[in-house]
Amino acid sequence: MKLRCPELVAWRLVVCLICSLALVAPARTVCGQQTSQPQSPTPEDRPTLGPRNGPSTLDSGPMTASVIDVRKLLRIHTLYVENIDNSLSDKLVADLGKLGRFRLVTKEKEADAVVRGSCLESRRLKRVHSEVFISDHNGASIWQDTIYRPYNPPALDQVINDTAELIVDHLERTVREAQQH
Predict the structure, then answer these.
(1) Between 20 and 30 A from 180 (CA), which of 10, 12, 26, 49?
(2) pLDDT at residue 94 is higher than 90
(3) What CATH architecture does domain 5-33+50-180 belong to?
(4) Is the pTM of this model over 0.70?
């Protein structure tokens, strides 16, 4: 199902609202393993990415990615990267290209899956909150990663570069682990 322009705008507004609320809350990340029970005493309703499963961290720390559908992830050969704030999409394209696992395409219709997300900076809190997820053409989530990074120092551009490298590293590790099982 293809989203119409008003639906796409509404969806992006919801994502931005959720992300901005998360910037005010204490930093948390998603752990690499999914559990049936959330570790926090009160589960959160997170319509874009599902429940959080782990402790807070501001450094690269543990693997922050999680797989929603392993079979779909392993079937992805081509990716389309949508525009993501703060030029994170450009950095992801460059780093995914170096990875060599996926063929990157310039048209969404040619891709097996789409990389979407947000990369919001909070100047007041001096941190960057990035949520990146891979979804199929119906919008069903396949893989996701959430990263919080402090900046100033380092500079915002460097934090975005580091974030892209972390996301691609997490994706590569997730695929490698999925192939071993």
Answers:
(1) 49
(2) yes
(3) 3-Layer(aba) Sandwich (3.40)
(4) no
CA 162, 168, 169, 174 torsion-angle sign: positive
> DSSP class of residue 138?
T
Task: Find out whether 128 and 151 touch, Cβ atoms under 8 Å.
Answer: yes
* Per-residue pLDDT at 148 exceeds 50: yes
Confidence (pLDDT) at 4:
59
Domain boundaries, the chain: 5-33+50-180
Contact, 128 vs 159, CB < 8 A? Answer: yes
Residue 147 has pLDDT above 60, yes or no: yes
Query: Rg of the Cα trace of the chain?
Result: 16
User: What gap in Å lies between CA 65 and CA 174, rounded to an integer?
Assistant: 8
Q: Which two tokens stand for residue 118?
A: 């947000």
Is the peptide bond between 51 and the residue preceding it cis, with omega within 30 degrees of 0?
Answer: no
CA 65 from chain center: how many Å?
8
* Whole-number Å distance between alpha carbons of 142 and 178: 13
Report whether pLDDT(113) > 90.
yes
What does 87-132 look like in DSSP terms, one character per residue? GHHHHHHHHHHHH-SSEE-SSGGG-SEEEEEEEEEETTTTEEEEEE
